[in-house]
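Quarterly update, task 2.4: pyridoxal-5'-phosphate-bound model.
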Amino acid sequence: MTQQRKMIPIAKPTLDERETEAASKVILSGWLTQGPQVAAFEKEFAEVVGAPYACAVSNCTTALHLALLAVGVGQGDEVITVSHSFIATASVIRYCGATPVFVDIEQGGFNIDVQLIERAITPKTKAILCVHQLGMPCDLRKIVEIGKVHKIPVVEDAACAIGSEIQWGVEWHKIGKPHGDIACFSFHPRKILTTGDGGMITTGSKELDAKVRLWRQHSMNVPDTVRHGSAQVIFENYPEVGFNYRMTDVQAAIGREQLKRLPEILEHRRRIARAYAQRLRNIPGLGIPSEPAWARTNWQSYCVKLPAGADQRAVMQSMLDNGVSTRRGVMCAHREPSYPAGTYRAASHLSRSEAAQENCIILPLYGQMTEAEVNTVAEALEYALANAKPAALSA
Ligand SMILES: *Cc1c(COP(=O)(O)O)cnc(C)c1O
């Protein structure tokens, strides 16, 4: 018997006519790629996060690639980061011809264990690439301190962290306000705001901004926007090898509408996260995420640790059978076939990273989600924990 049932998805972007109208205006304007909309989006994004410079690019992976190149990462260098992240975090290091040096994540959370960073440093270390995993700020204050002491630049993978905040002295700062050298954001539909695909690079350094801005458009020294508006004939040249990592004006126009929704999106996600915490608190052995006193997450993902002995795949399958979509915990790059021995260095055990991948699941959380749906998810999880058995045993 097939049953029509309403699925609760893992995520769903918040989009309506505001975005479609903004995009259609750009299409009808005749200027589709990087132009005035990109410039306006950059200015508005910089204001929202409190950064002097923001440079839009095609996605966060290209943003991270340019950021690492800009701080000087090259062939034979090392970059300290986590394996426990989306694969792009480690792969961009290899784009530069450098080696990812992995350290484990912290106890009880999904961010880099800052205690392990210093002993991973060698004379080849050219950057620390820290991740604000699932939107939860990592201990940036400590990481920036280590960077200063050892004169190593800090690049923030803030793909998931638009709108997340960190306490700095008596103030709260949005992630992207420069504390590290460069921060990179994603506008993939699975993140907080979306432009389909898209990325943003923020920095406090005029020099770093100038580099990434040049490289994202083939290192063309006179952009086509300038040539187009000029009454004089201008010949451009290409002082360095660059990339085509542009964002289009269609995407930027969508992004500008998305940015206006940020406060309401954050408020809603925080309300849903509170409802989850309240509802899940009574499930024995379940680990629920929490913010350190100095951080406010945007709850890009709500990731719980299953009770000891629960079978991750069986729990997820049972929940799916009951109409609730989930995802396993964050992946570990070092366990993928594209990371054979010799392509990275493990500077510590990675046991907490591996355990988090195996024992955690991500629950649905999105803009239109209701508290009734939170309850449906919780019931499906309770049912799964009580009934789901590993496939091998029940077969
Ligand atoms: C999504 C994500 C990326 C990649 O972002 P894209 O915009 O899809 O390239 C990089 N790092 C982390 C931690 C991510 O979650």
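Highlight for this quarter: The chain has two domains: 17-260, 262-394.
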